Amino acid sequence: MKKFMSSLPGRYLSGLHLSESTVVTLVVLLALVVLSSIPYLQTLRFDFVNYDDDIYLFSNEMVVRGLTADTAIRAFTTLYTGNWHPLTWLIHLAGVSLFGLWAGGHHLINVLLHAANVALLFLLFRAMAVNVWRSAFIAALFALHPMNAESVAWVSESKGLLCTFFYLLAMWFYVPYSKKPSFNGYLPVFVSFAFALMAKPMAITLPFVLLLVDYWPLRRVNRKSETPELPVISVISGVSESPGVSYAPGAYRTGEPAEEPVSGGKGLVFLLMEKVPLAALSVADSIVTYYAQKAWNADSAFNVLPLKLRIANAFLSYAKYVGKAFYPSGMEFFYPMPGSFPAWKVISSVAAISIISSLALITARRRPYLFTGWFWFIATLTPVLGIVQVGTQAMADRYAYLPFIGLFTIISFAIPAFPPKKSAALTLKVSVAASVAILIILAMLSTKQAGYWKNSFELFSHATDVDEGNYVAFYNLGTASAMQGMNDDAIGYYEKAVAAKPDYTLPYLNMGSLFLNQKRLQEATHYFEKALEADHGEYRAYYGLASISMAMGREDDAIRYFEEVLKANPDFEPARRGLAEVKERLKRPEVPDK
To answer: In order of start, what are the domains of the chain with their CATH numbers?
Structure first.
């Protein structure tokens, strides 16, 4: 390092007064930003996919107008998609204003957000007095793990990236506040957390995660100890800014927190009470999210599956996420929820999660990184495990973006901190070589995984290769084919979707609509009736049958079907207009306005 420093222009160093540790940190920070971009620069050549990108971008009448005063206001008032996430809408609006509907520009936003998250994660752990190389390894794992490819390569998931940015920013602001609590120090934590919630409600776990880092690495928990208080660490250089205060024995060498809590810590009541305003935000956002889902009719999917199945899936998902953290394979954009699980798998998962959780608690004093890292993972994943069911997926790669930071922390600290002695030189070299090899492999896997998001056909075809029963992938292949005018291919994919899941109504509806547009009324009738067999309350199937009846001159049947539509969905205006039209044909009174 000294040789590197001496090779720099003297005027540069003397002008900036940069210490060696500052230069190391800046170089590592730059390397991490570059590293995080390598697998994802290819996405600048990618298209949108017809999986939420239409809802959030290219078919959204508000978003395609770009950022204006009117659309900015609507971003804060709309509950479209069943969520209140104004910052998500604002970033899409800004993207359209900058790039129009060029997909590469919107992919670039995601790449930049991911790089910012990697940099902020590194700075966060440095601010918490974690060794520069451990901090770098945590951030590098986060930057390159292929489970994060979905979050970066999928334009619609910019909400998760934006949420994580403000989540980590709130934690970064929390570090100086924890050293010297004050209102002015708390305010940026509160505001950043509010912004995280306005991007994605998954951020509700922050108050609990702050309690975890209070225990370690901040060590704010008050217990009897003669260990001196840790110094305030510069976020950039890692150099002590508290004269006269030193690390506990052995901690200064590695830059890691002392093995005992600091004597100047806080009581548990104080630590809990200071989280109350943040917890109140979490509760408020949960209520808003529930009513947003209800307004979007997404609550019809709430708790449809038996509670026993949802709990079993939660434990299995924990185990699967851990497995994919260490052996990332078989990744797909959608993991179908099976109708049942083998008992031995559920029991094994419950046992494994319970054992690891117990070990984390028992060894909390000796291995605090295991305690904080493991329960970071458990807590941040809990809101998206489907115990309160929203949607039909069993799990999702994007849900691991924030929780995996906990596992990466454990991995980083599980590697021994070797002292600079000749006897340990070989072991240190092996450890470094292994770490570099792991990162290279992860970079290759992430590059490959991101490549599947090139377009709809690549993405959904890969999913069917991974899982022949992925009915959502077949449905989306059908939709992508229909958008290209390949109707026969579309019908074939829709048939495969319903073969995998007979009660899946969307393929029936789309097949009915395709045949209706082709004036093939008998085939259209068949598929709309199949949709009603799968779901007797499917108003869109009734609307299709009403349209067929009108085309065939069967006005009485059309009236009956339109009335069924309005019974199921009184706000469906096309049905109201159709009913008025058919009654006009029969010279009956027009249906009154709503």
So the answer is: 21-451 (no CATH), 469-585 (1.25.40.10)
Q: What is the pLDDT of residues 292-310, one digit of tens each?
A: 887 776 445 444 678 899 9
Q: What is the DSSP secondary structure assignment for residue 27, as one 8-state letter? A: H
- Give the pair of three-digit tokens for residue 585: 């044909």
Q: What is the pLDDT of residue 431?
A: 78
Report, in this order, helix, strand and coil percent for the chain, each rounded to 5.
Answer: 70, 0, 30
Determine the Cα–Cα distance for residues 553 and 558; give it in Å rounded to an integer: 9
DSSP per-residue string spanning 322-356: HHHHHS--S--S--BPPS---HHHHHHHHHHHHHH
Question: Helices in 382-455 by DSSP H: which ranges?
Answer: 404-414, 425-451
Per-residue b or e along 75-94, where b marks 16 or more CB atoms closer than 10 Å to that residue's CB: beebbbbbbbbbbbbbbbbe
Distance between CA atoms of residues 111 and 301, nearest Å:
33
What's the pTM? 0.87
Query: CA 405, CA 171: separation in Å to the nearest integer?
Result: 13
Mean pLDDT over 516-529 rounds to 94
CA-to-CA separations, 543 to 487, 497, 547, 565, in angstroms, rounded: 21, 22, 6, 6
523 Cβ partners below 8 Å, 6+ apart? 511, 515
Residue matched to tokens 């200064």: 252
Residue in this structure with the two tokens 């094994």, named with its chain if needed: 348
Could you tell me the two tokens for 377? 């993972």
Coil, helix or strand at residue 264: coil
Q: Helix 368-381 crosses helix 206-215 at what angle (to 10 degrees)?
A: 180
Most confident of 113-117, 249-253, 286-290: 113-117
Identify the H or E element spanning 30: helix 20-37
* Cβ atoms of residues 265 and 220 within 8 Å: yes
Rounded CA gap, 439 and 408, in Å? 12
Say if CB 398 and CB 153 are below 8 A apart.
no
pLDDT at 589: 54
**What 3-state class would DSSP assign to 266?**
strand
Q: Which residues pair with 218 in a beta bridge?
A: none
Q: What tokens does 281 get?
A: 């935000």
Q: Are 166 and 158 in contact (CB under 8 A)?
A: no
C-alpha separations of 536 from 508, 540, 576 in Å = 13, 11, 20
Report whether 380 contacts 205 (CB < 8 A): yes
Rg, C-alpha atoms of the chain: 28
Question: 266: which strand partners?
Answer: 221
Contact call for residues 475 and 494 (beta carbons, < 8 A): yes
Read off the DSSP letter of residue 240.
Answer: B
Cis? peptide before 146, omega within 30° of 0: no
Angle value at C-alpha 353, between 349 and 357, nearest 5 degrees: 170
Q: What is the pLDDT of residue 5?
A: 42
Residue 320 contacts residue 395 (beta carbons within 8 Å) = yes
Query: In sequence order, what are the residues at sequence separation of 6 or more whose Cβ sits closer than 8 angstroms to the Cβ of residue 388?
Result: 302, 303
Alpha-carbon distance 407 to 314, whole Å?
A: 18
